[in-house]
Amino acid sequence: VTKWMVSKGQGKTMGSYFMLLNALAEDGRLEEAEDLWSKIFSENLEGTPRIFFDKMISIYHSKGMHRKMFE
What we know:
InterPro entries: EMB1417-like, PPR_rpt
Oligomer: single chain
Organism: Nymphaea colorata (pocket water lily)
Radius of gyration: 12 Å
Distance between the termini: 30 Å
Protein name: Pentacotripeptide-repeat region of PRORP domain-containing protein
Strand content: under 5%
Structural class: mainly alpha
């Protein structure tokens, strides 16, 4: 539902983006999670909340993608 809302221009808040990032990670859709992360980071270079960085590091760590953690 959150992905649909965002695609329709509704609910574009950091909370909904974080919920979507969590859902994609839990569902094993890493490529989509990375795409969302790139979008969030590029649109909010100086205002990206630390929790997003923590989440991406956690995703990479759980998938054994340690090199990605430092990019």
